[in-house]
Design brief:
This protein is mostly beta strands and 123 residues long. The protein is built from 1 helix and 7 strands; from the N terminus they run H-E-E-E-E-E-E-E. 3% of the residues lie in helices and 45% in strands. The strands form 2 sheets. It has a 4-stranded antiparallel beta sheet with strand order 1-2-7-6, with no helix packed on it. The protein is elongated, with a radius of gyration of 17 Å.
Length: 123
Amino acid sequence: MAAVPEGYYESTNPFLVHGPRGFEEFKLLESFGMYVRMDFPGVPEECVRISLDPAKKSLAVYADAPKVHRYDLAQRKYLSVIETVCSCCAFDRFTYQMSDGVLRLHLSKSNIDQRRSSCIEYR
């Protein structure tokens, strides 16, 4: 059996004809926000939990895909964390939509340190 390159299935889906090649997509928006798309195969909408940390510097996404077939080894659990890496801004609020195993997040950020120029300016 041939060795599969590490990270192969994360960056390339042989059945994908058109669209982003990864399991997640990040896009900065002109409205000082961010759009995030994440693939969570088999996860129904009611099995997604999103929490914003008290400092508003990170957002955690928890998702559970139930065991649906008798040959499935176990239930799948997903965890992803989105965080700001600067000290001048924080997440304000977020909205999300989950459908067909795809989570779409819209994050709004705000400048928390008025003495510093904001890193969230659209360039």
